[in-house]
Amino acid sequence: MLRRVLLYLSEHGGFQRWVPPQLARRFIAGDTLEDALLACERVNHDGITATLDYLGEHVRNLEEAAKCRDAYVRTLEAILERGVKSNVSLKLTQFGIELSDEKCAENVSALLKIAAPAGNFVRIDMESSAYTDRTLRIVETLHHQFGACGTVIQAYLRRSAADIERLCAAGIRVRLCKGAYLEPPTVAFEHKSEVDRNYLELARVLLARGNYPAIATHDQAIINALIAHCRRESIAPERFEFQMLYGIRRDLQRKLVAEGYRLRLYIPYGEAWYPYFMRRLAERPANVLFLVRNLIRS
Ligand code: FDA
């Protein structure tokens, strides 16, 4: 119930004025590209790669979409110039998908023209199920044209097994996550046990047939089960990577790296932190207590 309220608030900005921006800092590298690059250098130093996310979603017009595209161009160029080990992750509602599929794809192409020749990579995040079909269509087209891009599949969606088969057949790289949006029970599993079971099943498919899959979770039970699965099936650690979010389970991050697994951290930066922050609160009730305590204090 609390999760659903927080996800509802994440989609409706009214609550933002009650949240002190410094609280979001736990999950966000900072406001500027320089903050993100410094965070990136810090994690690279610990043997962790990164993916940078310039925060923003649901732009209102194509000028805003073009500004986001340009911010990502600067991010990719800075990654290449500074030589940090990072790629980028973006959301199609930030690139104009609600206004024009064609323009949105053009905006992403601008990044792929830089990423592909440089051997870098653009991950297209998955948003709510209203965008799944259109996101997959755009990813398939761009992958065919440029390579160098992949997407995300959410284990809470009932459709995901079929989508994974389709992406594996096309050789498109998949990040598997549980899913972070408010969805009706007709499209998404409601209970954690069902989502976790589906996650494990989908991860095994990706580890067997996927192109360098990304196992994106902080769920230690799932991670342990998949490590055991890889040992049994002789799947080498270089064939996949774990991914986690900046500011979450640093203990587990260190453990995986120490054990020789590849780990990439999703590092968000920018001023549009509110929906991202609210989704992180929704994932863990203890985070809400932390927010309430800070609101009472201030
Ligand atoms: P789960 O929620 O069961 O948490 C397992 C444990 O992890 C918790 O017990 C707790 O210890 C810790 N934990 C999890 N979330 C926490 C939090 N917010 N604060 C503190 N501790 C926390 N979603 C999506 O819909 N589209 C996308 O494109 C992406 N992209 C993405 C990239 C990467 C790299 C990651 C790691 C995740 C995403 N997600 C996402 C988010 C994902 O769908 C999911 O909401 C979160 O990862 C939380 O789920 P877990 O798998 O960690 O499991």
Please give a structural write-up.
- By secondary structure, this protein is of the alpha/beta class.
- It has one domain (29-272): Alpha-Beta Barrel (TIM Barrel), CATH 3.20.20.220.
- 52% of the residues lie in helices and 13% in strands.
- Strands 1-2-3-4-5-6-7-8 form an 8-stranded parallel barrel, surrounded by 7 helices.
- Strand 1 (49-54), helix 4 and strand 2 form a beta-alpha-beta unit.
- The two termini are 26 Å apart.
- The relative contact order is 0.16.
- The mean pLDDT is 94.
- It binds dihydroflavine-adenine dinucleotide (FDA).
- The site of dihydroflavine-adenine dinucleotide (FDA) has 24 residues, from strand 4, strand 5, strand 7 and helix 11.
Distance between the termini: 26 Å
Structural class call reads alpha/beta
Question: What's the number of structural domains?
Answer: 1
Average pLDDT confidence is: 94
List keywords for this structure.
single chain, 298 residues, alpha/beta, TIM Barrel, 8-stranded parallel beta barrel, 12 helices, 8 strands, binds dihydroflavine-adenine dinucleotide
Task: Write the SSE topology.
Blueprint: H1 2-11, H2 21-24, H3 33-45, E1 49-54, H4 62-82, E2 86-90, H5 101-118, E3 122-124, H6 132-146, E4 149-154, H7 160-169, E5 173-177, H8 192-209, E6 214-216, H9 220-233, E7 241-245, H10 250-258, E8 263-269, H11 274-283, H12 285-297
Helix pairs in contact: 1-11, 4-5, 5-6, 7-8, 8-9, 11-12
The structure holds dihydroflavine-adenine dinucleotide.
